[in-house]
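Researcher: We're teaching a course module on how sequence relates to structure. For the next exercise, students receive a sequence and then see the predicted structure as C-alpha cells, so they can try to spot secondary structure elements on their own. Here is the exercise chain.
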Amino acid sequence: MAWWNLFNARSSEADRPDFSAAPIDLGKQLVFDVHSHLVPGVDDGAEALDDSLAMIERLVKLGYAGAVITPHIHSDIYPNSERSLRPAFEHLRKAAAARWPQFHLHLAAEYFLDDHFAECIAADDLLWFPATDEEGRKVKCVLFEFGFHEPPMNHDQVIFDLQMAGYTGVLAHAERYPYWHRQPDQIRSLSDRGVWITVNAASLGGAYGPEMCRVAGQLLEKGVAKMVCSDAHGLRHMDSLAALAKSPLVQQWSTTHAVLSRGIRSEH
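Model: And here is the predicted structure for the students to work with:
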C-alpha cells in the first residue's frame, strides 16, 4: 500500500493515545529534549526563572541528559536575537548548573519561516545546535516552524538556502500543520530532502485532539519523525512527556527507528 494510503488509514487505535505499556526511562531513550521554551520572560514560554527550573527538574527526573532550548524568533511577535536572548539564557544555565551540574543546556531558537528567517540565513546569523546525523557526520541544526493556518509560500527556496549555508533544517511539530494532513507527501518530501521531522509529545498524548494524535503517530510509525520533543511552555507539557514513557508506540519507535536526539552534542 502506498505511504499516502497508509498515512490516511483511520483506526480507533490511531486516533487515541495508548499508555498501556510498562513505563521506560524515556529521557534515557531520547537523551536530549530538542524543542522547548524555557528561557524566562522572552516569549510565550516560561515567565520566570522558577518556572524554567521547575520544568528542567522534570526533565532531569525523566532521565534526560540535557535540553536544547528554542525561544521563538518571529519578527512580528517575538523579535528576538542571540544578543537579546543570551543574557537570560546564561542566567538560567548558571542556575540550573548549580542544581544539576551534569544536565546540559544549549541555546538555539525556533524560527518562523518568514523574510526575517531568510535574512538571518543570508547573514549567517543563526542560533543552531550541534548534532550527529544518521551517517555519523557532525551537523549544525536549525529549528524552524511554519504558520498553522496556511502553507508557506517560499519554503522550498528558504530550506535550500539554509542547506547551502551549511545547516540541517529541523521542522518543528510537523503534525500541527492541518493543511498537510491530506497531503502527507509534503512532509515526506521534506524528510527526503534532508529536513529532520519532529513531533510534539503533547500531540502524541492527545492534548490537541484525535487528528493531531493520529498524524503524529503515523509519522512515528513510518519512521519519518526523527525526534519527539516537549515543546515545553509549562509543566503541562512535561506531563505529556511523562505519559509517553508508557506509550507502546513511542517505545517501538525508539527501538526500531533513528532517534536523532541521541546524537545531540552538548558543546559547539
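Model: If you want an answer key for the exercise: The mean pLDDT is 93. Residues 82-99 form the longest helix (18 residues).
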